């Protein structure tokens, strides 16, 4: 079995660092799910029974004022082709306009969205709960998973969560 996960989030939240934990495996099984070349594969995670293919969705990362309707449409179409969305934020930064831009896009798709709070190594555990509460008000996330992509904390748990859902 294989599943496609779009990875989205503002610049510098740690998307590439996270991918370094899962890159290195080739795609073993070609999924029959609709996929187009506009979706760039960033990395593949495999275990005994499953592969999770992480997809970059160009256009949705950059909340530029002049981002045209056409580009927004492309990004939304890309999101429609995946099984789930990984929305990464930085635990060390609060909620920001860039996040609202992305959440507005999420409203238009009907896919489970997993909020991944990265860089938990930078914050006191007491800071985490208010952040979680804040984001819970913004969107109905499938699950909220705190990780440290740099130190690897909870990354395996995140993969287990995806494996359960895909
Ligand atoms: P991207 O723009 O979302 O791909 O973010 P990057 O993966 O390039 O990371 C941006 C910066 O954040 C880099 O300096 C990373 O080393 C740092 N970073 C990423 N993940 C973590 C983390 O879990 N903890 C800490 N402390 N730094 C991180
Ligand atoms: Mg990057």
Tell me briefly what this model is.
Belongs to the TRAFAC class TrmE-Era-EngA-EngB-Septin-like GTPase superfamily. Era GTPase family. The protein has helices at residues 15-19, 69-80, 97-106, 125-138, 155-165, and strands spanning 2-8, 40-46, 51-56, 84-90, 113-118, 143-146.
Q: How many independent structural domains?
A: 1
**SS element count, helices:** 5
Widest sheet: strand order?
A: 2-3-1-4-5-6
The CATH architecture designation is: 3-Layer(aba) Sandwich
Percentage beta strand = 15-25%
Function: An essential GTPase that binds both GDP and GTP, with rapid nucleotide exchange. Plays a role in 16S rRNA processing and 30S ribosomal subunit biogenesis and possibly also in cell cycle regulation and energy metabolism.
Region (G4): 118-121
Region (G3): 56-59
Subcellular location: Cytoplasm; Cell membrane
Structure notes:
- By secondary structure, the protein is an alpha/beta fold.
- The protein has one domain (2-165): Rossmann fold, CATH 3.40.50.
- It has 5 helices and 6 strands.
- It has a 6-stranded mixed beta sheet, sandwiched between helices.
- The chain is globular, with a radius of gyration of 15 Å.
- The termini are close together.
- Magnesium ion is lined by residues 15-16.
Topology diagram in text:
Layout: E1 2-8, H1 15-19, E2 40-46, E3 51-56, H2 69-80, E4 84-90, H3 97-106, E5 113-118, H4 125-138, E6 143-146, H5 155-165
Parallel strand pairs: 1-3, 1-4, 4-5, 5-6
Antiparallel strand pairs: 2-3
Binding site for GTP: 9-16, 56-60, 118-121
Protein name: GTPase Era
Region (G2): 35-39
């Amino acid at each position: 079995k294989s599943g496609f996960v779009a990875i989205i989030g503002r610049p510098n939240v740690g998307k590439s660092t996270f991918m370094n934990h899962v890159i290195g495996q080739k795609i073993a099984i070609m999924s029959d799910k609709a996929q187009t070349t506009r979706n760039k594969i960033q990395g593949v995670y495999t275990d005994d029974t499953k592969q999770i293919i992480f997809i970059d969705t160009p256009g949705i990362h950059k909340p530029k004022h002049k981002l045209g309707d056409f580009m927004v449409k492309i990004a939304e179409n890309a999101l429609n082709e995946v099984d789930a969305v990984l929305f990464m934020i930085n635990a060390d930064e609060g909620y920001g306009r860039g996040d609202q831009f992305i959440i507005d896009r999420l409203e238009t798709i009907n896919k489970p969205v997993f909020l991944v709070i990265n860089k938990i190594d930078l914050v006191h555990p007491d800071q985490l709960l208010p952040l979680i509460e804040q984001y819970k008000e913004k969107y109905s996330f499938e699950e909220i998973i705190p990780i440290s992509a740099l130190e690897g904390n909870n990354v395996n748990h995140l993969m287990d969560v995806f494996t359960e859902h895909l």
